Amino acid sequence: MPTSAAQRWSRHCIHSHSQPKLVVARWSALVHRQRHIAAAAAKQEPGSDSLWLLVGLGNPGKQYQGTRHNVGFRLVDTLEEQAGVRLDKEQHNALVARALLWNHRVLLAKPTTYMNESGRAVAKLSQYYKVPRERVLVVLDDLDLPVGGVRLRGKGGHGGHNGLRSIVQHFGGQSDFPRLRIGIGRPPGRQEVANYVLQGFGKAEAGNIANAMQQSITTLQAVLELGMEKALSGVRV
Questions:
Q1: 69 tagged catalytic
Q2: Which residue of the set 12, 32, 36, 69 is catalytic?
């Protein structure tokens, strides 16, 4: 008849003439250790070994809502609603909220500094939460993409974008962090870029931006579920 581990252990202790108190103590310690391991595993949050910091870039204030420069904020707002959380906690110059997206822990963030100082918040949050740069994903607007275009990059320069420039600066010149660019198009004619990015989208562009939000979410899902390498190669969930 098969014997249990407990029975085998007890027989071993009896035949080895161990003291009963020592036997009980050792067995209790073993049971306690196994229970501790099981409890720790049960308490572990999904994806707790790979926290992501997802930062949308933009300018704070109602006067900037809906502008081209704030598409990064817009995507974070969309994810905030989807995850059922609220970015109502201010920490390290940013509004933040913990969210569970596709079974992965994500810290959503919107810097409360203006665009040109975004790096202050991003670097501090990355350091505080011990998130390495390869899991700091920045969402921003891109003049060189057509309105509604979406492009994922694993790393790269700032491309003249002041928000990215600030992040690279506060990361000590390191630019090896992923970014998701959402196209806002180039200004028509001789219009100044500084004025153009602070304007809203026209009615004809609304559909493109709505599609960009959905495409961006699909891309982020691929990053979290499949990994950056597969997401960059175009694989989607």
A1: yes
A2: 69
